[in-house]
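Example with several molecule types.
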Amino acid sequence: MPGIVIVGTQLGDEAKGKITDLLAENADCIVRFNGGANAGHTVIVEGKTYKFHLIPSGVLHGKRLYLGNGVVVDPEVLIEELEGLKREGFQPDLHISDRAHVVFSFHKLEDGLQERFKGNLRAGTTKRGIGPTYADKAARFGIRIADLLDEEALKTKLDVLADLKQKIINQVYGEDIKLDKKEILEKASMFGRAISDYVCDVSMEINEALDEGKTVIFEGAQGTLLDIDHGVYPYGTSSSTIAGGACIGAGVSPKRIDKIIGVMKAYTSRVGTGPLPTELKDDIGKRIREVGKEYGTTTGRPRRVGWLDLVQVKYSARLNGIDELAITKLDVLSGINPLKICVKYRCGNKMLDRIPANIHTFEKCEPVYEELEGWKADVNWRRIVNEGYEALPEQAKEYIRKIEEHVKLPVSIISVGPERRETIILNE
Ligand code: IMP
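Resulting structure tokens for the full complex:
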């Protein structure tokens, strides 16, 4: 099973990092194909927590790691993560695409200014410069990793880009900030020298690995509902977060993908703005946020939480061509009775079974719920993990069966705690 894509089926933060780490044990290469340091992938092993923004989650297994061309690389974050890992005794076997685009400090500044200008249309970004970097890529102003290794190209391109940004900052946003072009160039060159050994043609290397029968995991960042084309526009991110994005963002053919795993949290969460039909603003919402530790990994912001929205997951199943589902954070719902799952939206006098493109229509959508009996609060998850699926409370099994029935996909992994070992793998 060589090419496996792991994607988020909701709005990010589905615990893809944990699932990737789990599956990385039997893989050879782990590839990030989209997004940048806006991602926050958490892996917990033996009580120790690791948080990655750029480094693929397979790092703890010592696997070969790739940042594909579709990733936007923030040099400062990358160097910090590499150094942190080295301090912990890891030697990341990292390979960075020469075609990946570089995030500069002015992109982060512009991100904040754009958000302020947009007012109610702001997405509540992570302010990591993601949108402005992808915008420059599409407008062909962008600076790629390959340029960092070529002093002449870097100087020529940065000259134009920094002048453009200076004008935008002063004349569009009216900010009295002066960019130091010399310092920006020096920092970029320094970064180029620091990472030159990691830079390669990632597409070529991954295709070779697949030719040799190696297992390659493509680790998606963010979630399907944040996708630039298919997400809740304009409240999503700026990259292709869906399985198809793995092909574009890593340089592999769709023919090379053998399996697509959709990661879904047992409930809904989102950071940032935008419609969220099943949002819970009551005590149940507070409880889920606290028990599930729903605070942004990248920004620390409290996440908005809600009942499980299967309209989202069904939409994701179609867009990604998901083969199987990994359900995470099932334990967080313990002690809540009854539980609700949204199976459709009511929009005026119409029923909807998909995410509408029109944001005003989406804002008017009301969830249609099915109610299920919850399970007790004091569940011995350790015992259940040891004994397997059959040991789950009957109500939890029914919850999973309902998901399988509505989404028409099998569940292959159930995560009941943040630790790597707190997982039930089905049909092993
Ligand atoms: P950006 O990707 O920083 O531009 O943010 C755009 C939108 O996507 C905002 O609503 C963010 O909160 C959201 N977002 C970006 N990255 C993540 C993530 O890794 N998890 C969850 N939400 C994210």
